[in-house]
Amino acid sequence: MDQTPKFGARLMPLFESRLGLGKGSFDKRSRRAAHRLPRWARRDLATLRAAQGMTEHPKLAMRLDTPALERAEARIARHLETIDVKAERSHWRLGVLAGLMFNLALLAALLGAVYYLLIRS
After folding, report:
1. I need a surface site. Which of 7, 65, 82, 83 has the fewest CB within 10 A?
2. What's the first-to-final CA gap in the chain, in angstroms?
């Protein structure tokens, strides 16, 4: 019977529901999620990824700092649980719309300037 804890198992459903990362192993998902997380969470994910490889080996598993890894996993889980998926999508749409409106305003100003220069000459 396997007594070694699998660090990161609590994060797998959160990666899927909060970040939309449904495919791949923990290592692959955590690498893809890293750019969307704060620096402290990236550091915690890196320690969890390193611990994943060590849990398979009995002698290396004894050297793991289990309470620290559990705290790191809990911190990341708390952060992921606070992410509001609907708000993220809404903010993304508003950002795209704001960029589009800025580009249209810039185009209108450019066309106005060209029209003014053509009328003056």
Report:
1. 82
2. 88
Q: What is the DSSP string of 4-60?
A: S--TTTTTHHHHHHHH---SS-HHHHHHHHGGGS-HHHHHHHHHHHHHHHHHTSHHH
Distance CA 83, CA 88 (A): 8
Q: Which residue has the higher pLDDT, 108 or 63?
A: 108
Residue 63 is given by DSSP the state T
The pair of three-digit structure tokens given for residue 100, joined into one six-digit string: 């589009």
Label residue 50 left, alpha or beta by phi (over 0 means left) and psi (-120 to 50 means alpha): alpha
Q: What pLDDT is attached to residue 2?
A: 47
pLDDT, one tens digit per residue, over 39-61 is 999 999 999 998 988 888 888 88
CA dist 92 and 87 (Å) reads 8
Residues whose CB is less than 8 angstroms from the CB of residue 6 and which lie 6 or more positions away in sequence, other chains included: 52, 55
To 10 degrees, the CA torsion angle through 94, 96, 97, 98? Answer: 80
